[in-house]
Backbone:
């Protein structure tokens, strides 16, 4: 995303805030194929059936979390509250932010999470910053939004798009637009 930023947003950097971008990793030991899950805390996107095959029980236990507790998971350019690992004030969308915008995961065999009715729907696959798993063969997965608008996991070896995220200074005034390619935000 740095190359994209340098090409597309470098001239607008004065309008951007060095806000933290979060990538909280909760480590969960699991039996079987997945040894350690960098789970984004089982959420609506990651509904898995319980012992009775019921997805709704898992979905009802999900929580959205915006933020991180480990400083290593708080990405910033220069802020004291973060890890100062960024070159530019740009990050990737988290799985929680995608869910808040309207992305959904599998709830049942009949409801596979498809949703084209939210502003982050693109009709293409894109990754979030949220890691999902590492298995005993060292295959890694991240949370992604698929071409149907559903959210789930994706092997990191798959080439796909990303959703860069920036934060505007609080004194920037909105003029018009809805953030789509046909009606971009004008500030």
Residues:
């Amino acid at each position: 995303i740095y190359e994209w930023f340098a090409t597309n947003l470098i001239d607008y950097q004065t309008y951007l805030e060095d806000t933290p971008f979060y990538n909280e990793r909760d480590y969960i030991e699991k039996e079987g194929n997945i040894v350690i899950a960098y789970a984004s805390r089982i959420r609506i996107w990651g509904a898995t059936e319980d012992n009775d095959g019921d997805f709704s029980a898992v979905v009802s236990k999900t929580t959205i979390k915006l933020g991180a507790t480990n400083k290593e998971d708080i990405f910033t350019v220069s802020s004291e509250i973060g890890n100062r690992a960024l070159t530019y004030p740009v990050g990737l969308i988290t799985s929680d932010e995608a869910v808040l915008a309207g992305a959904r995961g599998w709830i049942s065999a009949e409801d596979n999470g498809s949703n084209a009715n939210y502003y982050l729907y693109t009709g293409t696959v894109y990754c979030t910053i949220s890691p999902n798993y590492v298995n005993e063969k060292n295959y890694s997965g991240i949370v992604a939004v698929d071409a149907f608008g559903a959210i789930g996991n994706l092997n990191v070896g798959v080439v796909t798009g990303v959703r860069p995220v920036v934060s505007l200074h609080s004194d920037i005034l909105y003029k018009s637009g809805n953030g789509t390619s046909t009606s971009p935000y004008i500030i």
In short: Residues 32-61 have pLDDT under 50 and may be disordered.
